[in-house]
Amino acid sequence: MKNKRIILLAVSALLAASCQNQGQQQTPPPPELPVIEVATRDITTNSEYPTQLQGIISSDIRAKVSGYILNVLVEEGSAVKKGETLFELETESLSGEASAARAQVNAAQIEVEKLRPLVEKNIVSENQLQTAKARLETAKSNLNSISASVGYATIKSPVDGYIGSINYRDGALINPADRLPLTRVVKTDKVFAYFSVNEKDYLNMLMKFNQNSKGESSLISSFPEVVLILPNGQVYDKKGKITSISSQVNPETGTLRFRATFENANLILKDGLTGKIRIPNYIQDAVLVPRVSTFSRQGKEFVFLFNASDSTVTEKAVETRRADPYLVIGSGLQKGEKIVGSGVNKVKNNDKINPVSSTMDSIVNSFDTVFK
């Protein structure tokens, strides 16, 4: 029995020693990670907003009278002048009505001429003459109305411009209440780019761009030139200017409507084209960190502060704004503080690391090289 007890104690000691050795072997060394010093630089950030373009003139062409289209005299995309005929409607029925109305005017005129001498001779009363004159004026008004309708059957362009889509062709019955216009005439030597800005961005712009304005200087005049990004990702070669800002916030979307104007002498930009408006924002002495030095959790951005006293890291929440390949720090970090430059997925809060001194540029360049 005594021997068995000695054997059990020996086995237990061996097992404990083995577990201790395994625990020591399983503890890895601290990861070797680059540490950088937070710096400040002058930088330009960009805000982008979806937009849709519209010609400086965009006139819907609609019929003022009902009728069948006899002739479409223009083609889509063709240039037209103000007063040029675009469509002709059937006027046969209107012409018949005009003839009847003209006959009524003639008859009423004859009646007036017949009664006038009779009134002078006191054969008929003045009231009869006035009644006849009233009937004459009514007949003339009816004729004028029908004549105008005949004129409306010839549909002309109200402005110089270019023809858009033609929604109705020869033989189509149209009327003033149709949902679609006959076509649209647009002028696009300049174009408007409409886009919406949320309340927060608007107030930030107000403070940034309008902070030095005096007197009647407005936010509009203090805006920098803006850039148009085309649907294919290319940058339009001419910069635009903010020319209008809505006077009220849309209560449903919480946004304000902006309008930028672009020159378009070569007519590359078309009415209805979509894209993005890019508004630059120059920041002096901005606190920057590489994007790869941060990580996200529950919609917030974090960095790992490096503690030189014990080589541990502490996670720190920061407010950021994107400025590829950097992030501009709004709050949470100051110039001169040290953070983990990359590999933030390899550590957690309060872990120890083996720091390797690095710079922001080397971190950014190494990241770009990997993903080229």
TrEMBL record:
Gene Ontology molecular function: any one: transmembrane transporter activity
Stored InterPro entries: MdtA-like_b-barrel, MdtA-like_BSH, RND_pump_MFP
Multidrug resistance protein MdtA-like beta-barrel domain boundaries: 195-279
Boundaries of every Multidrug resistance protein MdtA-like barrel-sandwich hybrid domain copy: 60-181
Signal peptide bounds: 1-23
PROSITE patterns the UniProt entry points to: PROKAR_LIPOPROTEIN
GO biological process, one term: response to antibiotic
Domain of life: Bacteria
Keyword Signal among UniProt keywords: yes
Keywords: Coiled coil, Signal
GO CC terms, sorted: cell envelope; plasma membrane
Annotated coiled-coil segments of the chain: 122-149
SUPFAM superfamilies hit by this protein: HlyD-like secretion proteins (SSF111369)
Family (UniProt): Belongs to the membrane fusion protein (MFP) (TC 8.A.1) family.
Family annotation (NCBIfam families): RND_mfp (TIGR01730)
Protein name, entry field: Efflux RND transporter periplasmic adaptor subunit
Organism: Psychroflexus aurantiacus
